[in-house]
Amino acid sequence: MTIDKKPDVIPAITGDIVYKDPLFIMPYLLEPYKVGILSYASSMLSTTAGYPLDSIKTRMQTHSYKGAIDCLTTTIKTEGIRGLFRGMIAPLISTAMSRSMTVSIYTDTKPYIANILPAFNLDYIQDPHTKRFIQNFPVSFLSGIVSGATISLFACPFELTKIFQQIVIVVNKDTKVNLNSTVLPTKVIDVARNIVKYEGWLGLYSGYRYHIVRDSLSAGFFYSVYETMKLQLQLTNAESDFFSETTKPKIDALCVPLSGAMAGCIAWGTIYPLDTIKSRYQRDILGNIIRQKLGLSKLPITPTKLTFPTKEMYRGFAPSITRSVCVTMIFFSAFEYLMKNIA
């Protein structure tokens, strides 16, 4: 079935592309998967760059440190530099794959959402910025929610194993029982086996109710803010007489990382308290797994209710927002560059 996009709906992520002199032409068999392949490559690059900050964020959410610097120095002192990259294999697979699938689903979903939403007569709006915002922000936001909710089914088990690897040393210290570090599961497969052994297959989805809401809202804000800001900045640049015609393409390119940084800030700033609750709930689940490995009884876990966000819920926010800015700037810059230079 062919879906005809409404004329005023902006194409997802990159907009319309005209290839003049591409660096590479995608093989015919891979062409249908171009968005997924290029977003996967971009996500692997950005995930690797931002992982140490993600590790610090998780540790600060689940344990007490004086600050990000204290967390960093303590981790390096007790675990070495490798401690900052502990558990990176899982997100390199899952995060990159999740981002790739999310972008693909978002791109494919947007024209459907645009046709489902009722069309409004906006001819009375003269300002093109306002008109474009009203036409596209709701479409992008709902498309992001659909893609985020869908991918959470795939991402949750991988993220749980990542968190286990990031905090397994400090969680073990919380048990106040000496356990030889060689006994602790540190590899992805071993971590997954221990979760299944002590919590069953559904244990891989511990905290999923928090995860799906977090991913849905995050993707909704992430893509809608990015597209809106980028296109508004580029529209302003096109209408401006301040820059020459040869300079404007460079300004357009600069709009990409700036918009990515803003999208990351707003998305994480909005859902961070929920992410903290999710991390702490999963920490308690993982703590019980270690207790059972020691022959101790499980401790009762009371899910934390999401109340008005407090300062406590924003522990680790500084490294998290820094990571988000770096990751989204790198991701969108790499993705848009590849999309526009690989036909």
TrEMBL record:
The keyword Chloroplast does not apply. GO terms for molecular function: transmembrane transporter activity. Its main location: mitochondrion. It is found in: Mitochondrion inner membrane. It comes from the Eukaryota. The keyword Nuclease does not apply. PROSITE patterns: SOLCAR. One of its GO terms (cellular component) is mitochondrial inner membrane. It is a multi-pass membrane protein. Signal peptide: none annotated. InterPro entries: MCP (IPR002067), MCP_dom_sf (IPR023395), MCP_transmembrane (IPR018108), Mitochondrial_Carrier (IPR050567). Keywords: Membrane, Mitochondrion, Mitochondrion inner membrane, Repeat, Transmembrane, Transmembrane helix, Transport. Pfam families: Mito_carr. Solcar repeats lie at residues 30-112, 135-232, 251-341. Belongs to the mitochondrial carrier (TC 2.A.29) family. This is Uncharacterized protein. It comes from Pichia californica.
